[in-house]
Amino acid sequence: MNQIAIIIPSVRWERFSRQCVETCSSMYPNAQIILILNEDVPSDVVIPANVEVYYSLENNIASRRNLGVSKTQRSYLAFIDSDAYPANNWLEEAISAFGPDGHIGATGGPNISPPNESRERHWVGMAQMSWLVMGFWLFYKSESSAARYADNLPSCNLIVRRDVYLDLGGMNEHLETGEDTDFCAKLLKNGFKIRFTPKAVVYHNDRTVQGFLKQRIVRGMAVNHHLFGNSERRGCIKDLLFLQPVAVIVTIVTFLTVGMINREVLLISAAIITAFLIIVSIEGFRCSKSFRDLMPVTALIFLGNVLLGVGFLMQAVGFTPRLISFYRNDC
User: Which residues of 80-108 are buried (b: 16+ CB within 10 A; e: fewer)?
Assistant: First the structure.
């Protein structure tokens, strides 16, 4: 593992970043571990000897990742979020997935809920097992998914060849969110492949309910940018599927407005809304692990879907709150 740099961007030193750093340090003592912080480490904290700490005043996470890359000469860059930590053999499996194919520019694996989470975070984790929340990227939330070539992997579990990363100019520092999706699209545009292996697992702490709902709004803003903004992913036809939540919102608004004066519109919109609620209920039942989880998980699946549409529309009309204050993982 002496050819790998593990890059961990974080706002501050807190319990999740501590867990991430200490797990990476003990599991990979020969790796170069680079921690990028916005705030000083408390004076009573002892940082592991194989961890380098750098500070950045930039709130943009892409710029912090690029800063981490600039501090290493190692051949592989292993990106992990500060609220995640690796499972056994994470990097061994990820590196082996590159194989002899020189066209594989990046690999990664599942990011799954850790054991022993609070019930609130556990509900969020269960909601994210629904395709209504994760869409066609549901595969990277499960260890049982088949190995495959992918068009996107999140940077909480993304291993990239350093030469490829530098040749492509790193991550787009003009993006406040969705920078990993943008980078993956850049990889594909330049003829490289992305390999998903289910054996390269990281445990990714789920958000609180409030954090999850904010995340869904921000994801909706990112979807708008990828579809219609200056994104490397612009023009990807299958991303149009992300417009489904927008269609649900339009249908609900139509039901409450035009439907009140037009019976035919009322019946059609009511039928669409009913069908959507039935699908949400089925997904809630499928994803819940116990009966007492059913109502909160179903509600989170509904909100997780619809709020993506809200974020998309907010971006469309130019109402975009400053993300660094609006969107931050809750500890």
Answer: bbbbbbbbeebbebbbebbeeeeebbbbb
* Alpha carbons within 13 A on the beta-carbon side of 87: 20
φ, ψ at 159 (rounded to 5°): -115, 125
How is 148-209 classified by DSSP, letter by letter?
A: EEES---TTSEEEEHHHHHHTTSS-TT-SS-HHHHHHHHHHHTT-EEEE-TTS-EEEPPPPH
Maximum distance among all Cα pairs of the chain, rounded to whole angstroms: 71
We report the CATH number of the domain holding residue 187 as 3.90.550.10
253 Cβ contact partners less than 8 Å away, ≥ 6 residues apart: none
The token duo for 160 is 């990239």
Q: Is 123 part of any domain?
A: no
Where the chain has pLDDT below 70, the residues are 322-331
Are 195 and 262 members of one domain?
A: no
Retrieve residue 69's tokens. Answer: 């890359």
Residue 96 lies in a domain: yes
The CA radius of gyration of the chain, in Å to the nearest whole number, is 21
Q: Give pLDDT, residue 331.
A: 44
Identify the pLDDT of residue 322.
Answer: 64
Do 254 and 293 belong together in one domain? yes
What are the distances in angstroms from CA 156 to CA 84, 190, 195, 259?
A: 7, 22, 15, 44
CB atoms within 10 A of CB 200: 29
Q: Which pLDDT tens digit goes with each residue over 281-292?
A: 999 999 999 999
Tokens 């940077």 appear where? 155
Q: Identify any residues that bridge with 240 across adjacent strands, giving them in sequence order.
A: none
Phi-psi region for residue 178, left (φ > 0), alpha (ψ -120 to 50) or beta? Answer: left
Distance (Å, whole) CA 120 – CA 179: 28
Which residue segment(s) compose the domain that 94 sits in? 4-110+145-206
Give the Å distances, CA to CA, from 138 to 31, 39, 131, 187, 296: 30, 34, 6, 21, 20
